[in-house]
Amino acid sequence: MTRPVLVIGGTGVFGSRLCIALLREPQVEVIVAGRDRAAAERFAARHGGRAERLDRDAPDLEARIAALRPVAVIDAAGPFQAYGADPYRLARAAVAAGAHYLDLSDDAAFTAGIGALDVPARAAGVQVLSGVSSVPALSSAVVEHLCRGIDDLHLIDIAILPGNRAPRGVSVVRAILAQAGQRIRLWRGSRWTEGRGWDQPVGIALFAGERARWASLIGAPDLLLFPERFRARSVVFRAGLELRLMRGGLWFLSLPVRAGLVRNLVPLGAALRWIAARLEPFGSDRGGMQVVVAGIMPGGDAVQREWRLRAGAGDGPQVPTLPARIVLRQLLGGGARPGARPCLAEFGVPAFAAELARSSIDITLEEEGARFPLLFAEALGGSLAALPEPIRALHRVIDLRRWAGRAEVVRGQGRLARLIGWAMGFPPATQDCAVSVEMQRRGAGEVWTRSFAGRRFRSHLTPAGGQGRGIVERFGPLSFHIGLTAHAGRLAYPVLSGRILGLPLPRLLLPVSETLEGVDAQGRATFDVALSHPLSGPIVRYRGWLVPDDDPLSL
């Protein structure tokens, strides 16, 4: 006996692929529904299934769904961020009809808010899941798989990189344009911050022999849901366009949005979809997804694990439909857990791999892990492990760490000392002030931003060229080779050499650094930094203590 499954948006980019897959399931009767009945009938004539015209905004929506008596309703239409004042009307109609509900939402607010239907869903004994797609259904399953055994999860970094020849329906184009230039809420260093949609690009080489594709910040349910679910200090989500011309053009078009001159770029959807179609021959049909997690193991070692999905032969658009297939099969097999919630780790990576094998599509999976090269651990050549835990913790920077404490600042009194202190941005003298330090990973190095009572100065730290060789710290045009040494439970920062604008500084002009990190009686990391110069005498001395200001549990 077949069981009716209603697919809204069944003729769209993702809905059509989902329907074609479900038509191969002997226990499923597929109802292909959408606003265009002729399109649904053409699809049914070619592939099978029963065509229905169904408008999500129709006044008789609830009665129409009840009359179809589906065991499950799947919304593959979207764009979900444009569902208006009553975004969950379709989901409520499914619950009222006693049907399970799934959607392929990639909108953060929509997916995170689906829990509003939890009470009626439980009362009806049905399962309501939002985001049963690449994100967050698949991405959460992968993160849960990768972060096993990690004691302190510092970073979740996810990127989706479709091929340029991947079909883009109107809903997909509008979803992209709706985010370009908009403010995005980001969880970085255990604190909510802001970024801009389609900004801060990074290069990701997903396929061997192919130049890196640019992936930029974009909103996704993962950004809102993963910090609490996985207790991660930072969560980053990016998406990319294969052609740099298109990515650069989208960034340029977003400038008026950033400036507040226009609300969004959605009205350009039809025109930009036409342009993208003209550029389709210049790209490939290969796309994929990458998930990276990094953190600290119980013994203190830093690790990074990566999972990659590579899709060829135009099979990338199949990926968002695979989680819905898996979850629907669970529901039909009696595995429903009544209630309404985002689709977080409702299945495991083995189930996804099994669905791939069942689908016979051109997609490969790859997973690898390695020790994460912490800057100070490499620079000290293993000596960091001999230092007390508060100092070791201070230098476990995988993405972004924040510290806070108190400090005393003493400034040199000579004219040259004051001039140097002003040029370097050192804080004014004070007997006691609040101090904060932000340490952010940048490539193989780190950027430290110190704030003394609101007065900030910054330096860039990079490896000095080999394990145990120390670090190079740069303040504007000045850079110093620092030979880190660990002794008697303390870490010293002696200056070995210096440069200005890349030219070596003579020994006579080299500043003297007496910098020590230690641990006080309260178990706090301490710092004592004294800088002087043979020509000026003492320049600045600041000393105090720091404690973590980025507890991952402080959501």
TrEMBL record:
Domain Saccharopine dehydrogenase NADP binding per the UniProt entry, residue ranges: 5-105
Pfam families associated with the record: DUF4166, Sacchrp_dh_NADP
Matches recorded under SUPFAM superfamilies: NAD(P)-binding Rossmann-fold domains
InterPro entries: DUF4166, NAD(P)-bd_dom_sf, Sacchrp_dh_NADP-bd
DUF4166 domain sequence ranges: 387-546
Domain of life: Bacteria
Record protein name field: DUF4166 domain-containing protein
Organism field: Albidovulum salinarum
